[in-house]
Fold:
Amino acid sequence: MESRFVDETIIEVCSGKGGDGAVHFRREKFIPRGGPDGGDGGDGGDALFVVRNNLKTLSHLKMKHSFRGGNGAPGGGQRKSGRRGADVEVPVPPGTLVKDADTGALLQDMVAREQPWLFVRGGRGGKGNWHFRSSTNQAPRFAEPGGSGICRRLLVELALIADIGLVGKPNAGKSTLLSVLTNSHPRIGAYPFTTKIPNIGVCHGYESEFVLADIPGIIEGASRGAGLGLQFLKHISRTNLVVFLIDLHEEEPQNAYRMLEEELEIYSPDLRTKQRLVVGTKMDLADSADRLVALQSALGDQTCLGISAVSGYGIPDLRARLEKMLAGAEQMS
Structure:
């Protein structure tokens, strides 16, 4: 599963070519010199993007990276039009960003689109020689060629859609908390970087439900390429709330919070302006209560909760606080 997670890839998307118009003349018994009756070529197929809720990654685009609309068929005699080319659909998961591969310019955000997005139209079918008859040219021997399709190289990115993003150092307890709060079953282990891909889950609150995303642990120097977490921070860029999980088993947990705050700000100043909650984890271990007090003191007026995902200590309070903060964020937006 982890090796197949793809959140960024380059694809080529092309619309179909229009069919050529026909050069044809009416030939029937007793009418040896019938006029032009060449039909029009069919239009080329369009290229569209469609959101599929059952897709969770972009791995299908990694395997098939070229999408082409069908070409229109050429026109025929007796003013018959050619068949239109088949449209091509590019299926993507919710939260996909479509960008120009060369410039990086955002072309479409598929986060909230319910209808297919028409990316490029197919080439128009060429007109047959029937259209070009005139009083001065009653037997035109030319027709219009079909219009060319359009090809674009696109950078397709996935930003998971979640209400809450969980950030913390490796082994801070993010995956364990996610498994307790939601129906998710992420890999959990007592060694660094257990989480190598983002995990998401749905938490059923007391009056509503919300989606949480757990990203790989962030270490010092992540903004310079260290560790795994930084490359996945885009998956919490859409969140309404960022939860900092601080391991109270560390000697000075306040330093861990400062490091996380600094790395997030370097990645994107916008993340620092998001609503946040600091949560001290592993309250079931010795000295955790004293370290929670030290962490709260370092945070000043900012609220800090203490929990243990193993024993369940503080989990009901955390669930209620998250629900309340999200409700406030929705009212402000």
